[in-house]
Write a structure and sequence with these properties.
Elements (H helix, E strand, L loop, with lengths): L9 E2 L22 E7 L20 H9 L1 E3 L2 E2 L4 H10 L3 H4 L15 H8 L5 E7 L18 E5 L10 E5 L2 E5 L3 H14 L5 E6 L30 H21 L2 H4 L2 E7 L23 H4 L3 E5 L6 E3 L3 E2 L2 H9 L6 E2 L2 E2 L15 E6 L4 E6 L3 E6 L4 E5 L17 H17 L2
Parallel strand pairs: 2-9, 2-10, 3-12, 4-13, 5-6, 5-9
Antiparallel strand pairs: 1-11, 3-11, 6-7, 7-8, 10-11, 14-15, 16-17, 17-18, 18-19
Helix pairs in contact: 5-6
């Protein structure tokens, strides 16, 4: 496989509120870009080049090329586990509005998901597919995401596969045992589906990499050497890095397969669904501030955007929520609306420096612990249902080492804390 040289593209997640706009179509079909949304599973900033966090980085020439040709979002917040992040992207709603609050929760069939919404507003302009990990149907292995309005689904319905080489593939509602390496298989399915389209397409490609189980991908896809079969007690980082590199290799294979004219009309979105798992997390994060937590290591994840319509490059520090991808992708697809549900479009950031949010928000409800967090970019408040709080000055303490007790706050800091508390109350109504 040739590593691609990108100067052209990439972005890599039902009732309306009173401030929502009535959507209209903003551009003719011939101006509609293809949309490729790529979601990595359990990938934090410490595990990718382009971020200062972490010291051990995988070899990812294709993701590097995507990042260098577009925007890197430095303040993108997900949820602390995968299912709520995916549901937030699909619905534009916070987890307390969808009841998808933790890994394994099930999305309600009454939700109008992103793909359906776009086609409702654009007279069925887009062919739509979801390929890869779904993890929004609880414990069911028989759920078909096509019932929500997606044209085509193929992938891993439940969460973690027991093996990347022996797993259950669901396609068009039917399950069968699959022995092809899952990262490769998802890419092959994506290639085939894209090649069959004759109108603008929107592909949600959700790799289960680099999620556990730790394993040895095909050697041609990674630079970690001849890794022995992983077993408990072994150093897991090389296996984690190998899975990331294999995903990068397959992303390159996919992009290389798309005809040039289609590539030039494609916007690609790449993001992680939550932070790095604690077995392989790197400093400045820790075992307790990684995946599953509302600390930065659990929710401040990578997102790159490049491609059609993206004229800015470099680092973008605006505050972004995972819910915001709903309105943003809708607007990219031609829906003339910038806000819907809990989602604000940041499409304007792709061409200018206009911030869209004063606050960003995330939450955690694993059935035992209920917490939420909010930030204005400078300060961050984490609060649990019992009223216990942690308050941080992120500008001086970006990795939340020093909680600021109420008794030592300046008058300005206390006022900011009250403001954040009030905004949480507004969000959680």
């Amino acid at each position: 496989m040739k590593y691609l040289s990108f100067s052209i593209f990439l972005i890599i997640i039902v009732g309306c509120s009173s401030n929502e706009q009535t959507p209209t179509i903003s551009n003719p079909i011939e101006d509609s870009p293809n949309i490729l949304l790529i979601i990595a599973d359990d990938l934090g900033k410490d595990a990718l080049s382009g971020f200062s966090e972490g010291t051990i980085k995988p070899f990812t020439p294709n993701l590097d090329a995507i990042r260098n040709s577009g925007l890197t979002f430095n303040n993108f917040w997900s949820y602390p586990t995968c299912s709520p992040t995916r549901a937030a992207i699909l619905t534009g709603k916070y987890g307390h509005h969808t009841d998808v609050k933790w890994a394994g929760d099930e999305i309600n069939l009454s939700e109008t998901i992103l793909q359906t919404y776009i086609n409702q507003q654009t007279n069925n302009r887009y062919s739509t597919a979801v390929i890869g990990k779904w993890h929004l149907s609880g414990n069911s292995s028989n759920f078909n995401p096509e019932s929500l309005g997606i044209d085509y689904y193929a992938g891993l319905i439940r969460g973690e596969a027991q093996s990347y080489y022996n797993w259950m593939l669901t396609e068009n509602g039917n399950g069968q045992l699959e022995t092809e390496y899952s990262t490769t298989k998802f890419t092959q399915l994506a290639k085939t589906w894209i090649s069959e389209q004759d109108k603008p397409w929107f592909l949600w490609l959700a790799y289960n990499a680099p999620h556990t189980p730790f394993h040895n991908p095909p050697n041609v896809m990674h630079s970690q050497g001849n890794l022995p079969e992983f077993s408990d007690g072994m150093e897991a980082t090389p296996y984690y890095m190998a899975a990331i590199e294999a995903m990068d290799y397959q992303i390159g294979e996919l992009l290389e397969s798309i005809p040039t004219d289609q590539r030039e009309n494609t916007v690609i979105l790449f993001l992680g669904d939550n932070g790095t798992p604690n077995e392989v997390v790197q400093s400045p994060y820790s075992f307790f501030t990684a995946k599953g937590s509302l600390n930065q290591g659990g929710i401040n994840v990578p997102m790159f955007i490049a491609g059609k319509g993206v004229s800015k490059t470099g680092i973008e520090n605006s505050l972004i929520n995972s819910t915001d991808l709903f309105a943003t992708i809708s607007q990219i697809a031609g829906v003339n609306s910038t806000e819907i549900h809990d989602s604000k479009s940041f499409k304007s950031l792709l061409t200018n420096a206009e911030a869209i949010r004063e606050y960003q928000y995330s939450e955690k409800d694993d059935g035992t612990n209920q917490l939420w967090t909010i930030s204005n970019g400078s300060y961050k408040l984490i609060e649990n249902a019992n009223g216990n709080q942690q308050f941080y000055f992120l500008e001086n303490d970006p990795y939340e080492q020093n909680h600021l007790p109420t008794g030592i706050l300046t008058a300005d800091q206390y006022s900011i804390k009250l403001d954040l508390e009030s905004e949480i109350d507004n969000i959680r109504q």
